[in-house]
Amino acid sequence: MEETISLQDLFKTLRKRLLLIAIITVIAVTVSGVVSFLVLTPIYQSSTQILVNQTKSESPSFNSQDIQTNLQLINTYNGIIKSPAILSIVIEDLDLDITHTQLHNKVTVSSVQNSQIITVAVQDPNPYKAVDIANAIASVFQKEIVTLMNVDNVNILAKAEIPENPSPIKPDPKLNMAIAAVIGLMLGVGLAFLLEYLDTTMKTEQDIEELLGIPILGHVSPISDKDLKDSKLEITNRRRRA
């Protein structure tokens, strides 16, 4: 006989296992909060912006071809900024106790679309160090690019600065806890249905009807201890009267 599950049965299962679902969700959120606040290291980010042109021209204006050429060179500049030619000097100037690869992983270089502005972002557990590294990269790039690419028109538009109350960009405890709540809820619901599926015990008359496929003609009501004592007392009294 084909077994069907109604929407009402689903809601009954959820209501029956509501406490289990709530416990799993609370545990997931709690673990996520503890890990986010106490285990994961806060990471701060600082950034600086650089404007790069080609060699200065005697003409005060730029034509569209010059601008297009500059835009095509942006990817080259991005690669140079994260190259050992720049980062090794930054490590030496700041006396950083890290390798070029480690510093390379801390730095992100991006450019504004259709512009010659390059943004250098640095992530570090120390917000002050992130600021120092970002400014050092911009300064070293400004000096070294003259030799590397024959570009002598590099301007630093905005230096990296430490805010009054620096806040980490990651981890985001609220976001992590929200994701954990969703995952915990999904796991709780899945576990509730799994337990219900594995539970083959007969609990109600409807369970027996569904299993046997025949109607129930009657059932024996449960007798409480109080009713049993009252029945015994009544039988004793009847015997005494007789």
Automatic annotation (TrEMBL):
Membrane protein topology class: Multi-pass membrane protein
Membrane-crossing residue ranges in chain numbering: 18-44, 175-195
Subcellular location field: Cell membrane
Domain spans labelled Tyrosine-protein kinase G-rich: 141-194
Pfam families: GNVR, Wzz
The keyword DNA-binding is annotated on this UniProt entry: no
Record-stated family: Belongs to the CpsC/CapA family.
This protein's name: YveK family protein
Source species of the chain: Sporosarcina siberiensis
